[in-house]
Amino acid sequence: MTYSLPVAIFAILLSLLLISKRAKNRPPGPKGWPVIGNLPQMPKMHEWLTFSEWSKDYGDCIYLTILGQPILVLNSLKAATELLDQRSSIYSSRPRLVMAGDLYSGSVILKVTYGYQTAARGDHFLLLAEKVMAAFSEASQPGNWLVDLIPWLRYIPDWTPGATFKKKAAEWSKLHMEVIEGPYIWAKKNQDSSKLITPNVTTTVLSQQIDSLLPEDENILLWATASLFGAMALHPDVQRKGQQEVDTVLRGQRLPKIADLPSLPFVETIMREVLRWNPVTPLGVPHLLTQEDNYRTYTIPKGTIVMPNIW
Questions:
Q1: Are 183 and 249 in the same domain?
Q2: Whether residues 147 and 13 fall in one domain
Q3: HSE-CB for 296 with a 13 A CA cutoff
Q4: Which N-terminal stretch is annotated as signal sequence (predicted)?
Q5: pLDDT in tens, the chain (311 residues)
Q6: Nearest-angstrom CA–CA distance, 188 and 111
Q7: Model pTM score
Q8: Cβ neighbours around 251 below 10 Å, total
Q9: How far apart are alpha carbons 201 and 253 in whole angstroms?
Q10: Which residues pair with 305 in a beta bridge?
Q11: Could you tell me the residue range of the domain that residue 78 belongs to?
């Protein structure tokens, strides 16, 4: 019994070492360490910027390992299309991210009432939304959390040394609930107040799709709308041209609808450019390879987490 724990640890380390030694013909990437792989090199913030820099040295397919977990970063539209689209039958599974999923209460749900006038500086709800998105980005980044690689760590007591991830998850969960309830409470208190601005495009869209719009879609809509406001503030000439097109087509009689999009080509171009310029998820959503695959001259092992670098 005395030697059971050291033997178990030795067996785990040995298996990870053997896995790293068996690697064959993998895509290029930064050289890692035995057992821990590229863990020390993984960026903690703005990962997409680091991956873009690495692509200058290693190309559009970058291979990493973290404690035996293989990760493939795709830095070009060509590679992402050929793998995630043309081979979707084996690249469409999702990795289990314990920190982002189980401990962080799953997807972030934002029930915001549109028609709320934001403050010019330091708006409370916008700051909350930014904090939630930053927290989710950190929680869902592969390699950031040991509990994603060793799921049973989620069951250790909160006071255990090294269990700071549980405290962090609790903080993010509280923030998550504040984002859900805060805007709703504000809207309920201000239903008859002049603070509520009507009509507005977002409220119109949500009312038309109230039965089919998922909470995740609401979150994406909020982020895309904030990006649009930022882009238009930076480029008022583009905003004026888009407004002129809307006024010409609709003559100021109503708000735009999805059916009007074919008649608003410049507005559609603005929408597409905003999503390209500031994507909701710069690293996309992680995929999981369900079987070993050969791509170009590389062999990609089963279980690899595949991350498209949209940015």
A1: yes
A2: no
A3: 12
A4: 1-23
A5: 455 566 566 666 665 555 555 456 889 999 888 878 888 888 877 888 899 999 999 999 999 988 888 889 999 999 999 999 899 889 888 776 655 544 333 233 333 343 555 555 666 666 777 777 777 776 766 666 666 667 766 667 767 776 667 777 777 677 777 766 666 666 656 655 566 555 544 445 545 554 555 666 666 777 788 888 888 988 999 999 999 999 999 988 888 888 899 999 999 999 999 988 888 778 777 888 999 999 989 999 998 988 888 87
A6: 12
A7: 0.43
A8: 8
A9: 14
A10: 71, 288
A11: 4-44+53-95+290-308
Same domain? 24 vs 84: yes
Is residue 9 within 8 A of residue 270, CB to CB? The reply is no
Question: Would you say residue 61 lies in a domain?
Answer: yes
Residue 107 lies in a domain: no
Q: What is the edge-to-edge ordering of all strands in the sheet holding 287-288?
A: 61-66, 69-74, 305-308, 287-288
Q: Does 296 lie in the same domain as 266?
A: no
Residues in the chain: 311
Query: Could you tell me if 273 and 128 lie in one domain?
Result: yes
Contact 19, 37 (CB under 8 A): no
Whole-angstrom Cα distance, residue 108 to residue 241?
35
